Amino acid sequence: MSELTDFLNSSGLANLDWRAAVMVAVGLLFIFLAISRDMEPYELLPIGLGVIIANLPLTGMTIFSDNLSGHQESGIFGIVFHYGLSFWNLLPPIIFLGIGAMTDFSPVIANPRTLLLGGAAQLGIFVAFWGALATGLFDIEEAATIGIIGGADGPTTIFLSARLAPEMLGITAVIAYSYMASVAFIQPPLMKLLTTENERRIVMTPPREVSRLEKLLLPPMAMILIILVVPRSAPLISMLMIGNLFRESGVVPRLANAASNELVNIATIFLMITVGTQLSADRVFDTDTIVILGLGLVAFACGTVGGLVLAKLMNLVLKEKMNPLIGSAGVSAVPMAARISHHVGQQANPRTFLLGHAMGPNVAGVIGSAVVAGVFISLLPGG
Questions:
Q1: Disulfide engineering: 127 pairs with which of 173, 258, 302, 368, CB 3.0-4.6 Å?
Q2: Alpha-carbon span 262 to 264, nearest angstrom
Q3: Residue 148 included in any domain
Q4: Per-residue pLDDT tens for 337-361?
């Protein structure tokens, strides 16, 4: 009986407290939303599995030991977190390589004004950054990791969090991806509030045809210029542009396919599950987490508003008016935000086709959030 008692006391059931049980339920909810509601399944499904793994007691899967005699004590996700994120920070740049290989930059080339809309949508980052500092709960590095949620760019959020505040990585990443999955609920009310019916009905002429030479010139030129100005953005910007040049060159189809399929899929598996494993109950059940959740929502909303307002202001001086709805796509949720701009435009006027136009600020937002992350790393002590 004593052996049986000892066994039961050492089991997970005997060591599962109510907070961990709640987090297991949260992980199951993420899995349900991914499968049943098709909400960002490539992110929420593995994150949900990671949340469950992190909160099942005594597994040791999230532990990392750098003791040479104790490598067997390290869990697989502890190792992935240490080397893939905290120490080497490899996985987010690999994701950016895949994004570059999957993304068509033609809308940005066809209408360079959309770069301004993508830049304006980064307003949310700075609103949340200063808001986090104003609470007095966070230091400047933590405030930067909270602010970057406003870019609605999961890999950039992970990259910056791992660099400046690794202890906040799980919370900030999951909040960023949660808001990315919620663009269909968060953005439309703001878009309708800040635009008139006539503005939403504006029909834009189709984007001009972009030549192959332009597509080939953009990645190397953008990479050189951006990295010269903000060198610490190089890990993300360089990989984004390398992936895009693989795509547009047409001479390395195997590299482009590997970057946009096998490589990015493998990185996504380990990145998302590992992010989920950082959401242990003791981290989540904290007042700071509620504050971060609120600040993240403010950041995302302000990013949406920034792009919309700048589009309206630009219309004051432009001869050919743009539909201001495309400004909301300046957040980095690719391509969801662009689809929402198109959908809301279609509701107002079925003849309005905004997807091609909205992809311009959407791509610009990806570049913009990576640049802002580089600026934070350059200026803050922890970078």
A1: 302
A2: 6
A3: yes
A4: 999 999 999 999 999 999 999 999 9
pTM for this entry? 0.90
Residue tagged 């994150």 (tokens): 47
Pair 287, 108: CB distance under 8 Å: no
H or E element at residue 346: helix 336-348
* 192 in any annotated domain: yes
CA angle 37, 276, 126 (to 5 degrees): 90
Q: Is the model's pLDDT at 145 over the cut of 90?
A: yes
Has residue 363 been placed in a domain?
yes
Arithmetic mean of pLDDT, 144-170: 89
Q: Identify the DSSP state of 121.
A: T
Q: How far does Cα 53 stand from its chain's mean position? A: 22
Structural domain that includes position 208 = 90-379
At 220, list the tokens: 């190397």
C-alpha 290, offset from chain centre: 19
Q: Which two tokens stand for residue 241?
A: 């542009």
Looking at residue 149, its amino acid is I
41 found inside a domain: no
> Degrees (nearest 5) of the Cα angle 187, 357, 202?
75
Distance CA 181, CA 196 (A): 26
- Give how many domains the chain has, as a whole number: 1
The tens digit of pLDDT for each residue in 216-259 reads 999 999 999 999 999 999 999 999 999 999 999 999 999 999 99
Residue 60, phi then psi, degrees to nearest 5: 70, 10
Q: How confident is the model at residue 202 (pLDDT cuts 50, 70, 90)?
A: very high
Q: Which of 382, 128, 101, 64 is nearest to 241 (CA)?
A: 101
